[in-house]
Amino acid sequence: GSAATDIPRNPAFSNLNADDISYFRTILGERNVVEDEDRLSAANVDWMRKYQGSSKLLLLPKSSQEVSKILHHCNSRKLAVVPQGGNTGLVGGSVPVHDEVIINLALMDKIVSLDKINGILVCEGGCILENLSSFLENEGFIMPLDLGAKGSCQIGGNISTNAGGLRFVRYGSLHGTILGLEVVLANGTILDMLGTLRKDNTGYDLKHLFIGSEGSLGIVTKVSILTPPKLMSMNLAFLACKDFTSCQKLLLEAKRALGGVLSAFEFMDSHSMDLVLSHLDGVRSPLPSSLYNFYILVETTGSDETYDKTKLEAFLLRSMEEGLILDGVVAQDINQSSSFWRIREGISEASVKVGAVYKYDLSLPIDQFYGIVEEMRNRLGEAAKVVGYGHLGDGNLHLNIMTTRYDSDILAQIEPYVYEWTSKHKGSISAEHGLGLMKANKIHYSKSPETVQLMVDIKKMLDPNLILNPYKVLPQSCFN
Ligand code: FAD
Ligand code: MLT
Ligand code: ZN
């Protein structure tokens, strides 16, 4: 069953009527105004099957002009909307809470241009991340971000969540790599900020407001993104460590020894490994898994095969000698490296197979990183499976707690404890997944009252009728 939400529907919103539907048909055409029950039921539920809405309408625009007409109409009629991309979000932000109209850019999946000298890609917001990656790889470039949901998530969704992922440690945040955006505002205004320049200090850099705003300020329809060159020499090591302190030291050592070629540093505990091995078919550990407490994936990407290998080998040898690594294996070919990545990227898929999963996505100072996992394990005992994994290179822990079904007693043992703990240790309650519906009321654990108030003021200015992704990101109480 799903986790119940008890947020009342905002009475200021209208109800969809037959005139609205016929208007949408005239602008989008019959086929792209979807009332089909099967398609709606898929669009009403999130990836974890935790959040469930009851929308009666899914719209599939083909251009920014169509998005503009939809929003202009919804705004004047006070019809609430939810922008949806690949629907892989993990905080309940991508599905309706009540009867919001779902707007999905799946048909806006065209590549507009690629500057082959600078690697600047311009594309529509509905492009699927993996398709962009494949396109770029043929042209000698790569996307600066990669994540387990690449086969379904859309670049507009990635930008709206400010997704982090597996390459963050090397290429940084989307706030650095996004050069421009086209966004449609709640009243239908098309905001052209689609610059393709590295440097442009002309006034306030408003695109940043939309990166990470989770569909609450506008719909991202076009994107300009700086893409790094594809480098040919890649190595991947799967390593085992005895304790968390060794993992921390290994990270510092990897940064020092591998420097510019380090391209991923991912972490998982033995509980995450066991979860994947017991729930995903055909996955095997490259190491005797029951022997070790922690696993690390270290990837290097560079341009000189011999030099990169020598560096990696020297790093591994020294870390072995110092006892930081107990065991390890370097992938011998592309198949083996995909099988290593499958273990790490498969944790989310395995976690939902248990039944119910409570996901916490925390930024924590490195010395506090694993403490909360152990505390939760002690607190919950036999009642739940607790696993810790994440992007150690970025200080981002994923704490997942799994039970057979969603249960308010379990939830009461986890929250607010986990948020209070994170706040006390000066962490963030959302490192990369966003606040969505799950954490809209928890923002104060990570942001001051004055900061939240300014966010509310900005929201009211850009979306005075509050039609864009209501009930998400900011506490509902701020708008009453
Ligand atoms: P959706 O889930 O459809 O929507 C997410 C949010 O963005 C919603 O609030 C929605 O309203 C809004 N939105 C979507 N499209 C638009 C648009 N065009 N304009 C305005 N708002 C829009 N996240 C990470 O950060 N790092 C990871 O490593 C990572 N790994 C994942 C692995 C798996 C297996 C899964 C299932 C999820 C993972 N995620 C990760 C979470 C998720 O994939 C990302 O948040 C992703 O960026 C969401 O993209 P999407 O297109 O699916 O957006
Ligand atoms: C990951 O790093 O695997 C993702 O953020 C997804 C998740 O935590 O489930
Ligand atoms: Zn992650």
From TrEMBL:
Coiled coil region boundaries: none
EC primary class: oxidoreductase
Cofactor: FAD
Catalytic activity reported: (R)-2-hydroxyglutarate + A = 2-oxoglutarate + AH2
PROSITE patterns (alphabetical): FAD_PCMH
GO MF: (R)-2-hydroxyglutarate dehydrogenase activity; FAD binding
Keyword Oxidoreductase attached: yes
Superkingdom: Eukaryota
Record's keyword annotation contains rRNA processing: no
Official protein name in the record: Probable D-2-hydroxyglutarate dehydrogenase, mitochondrial
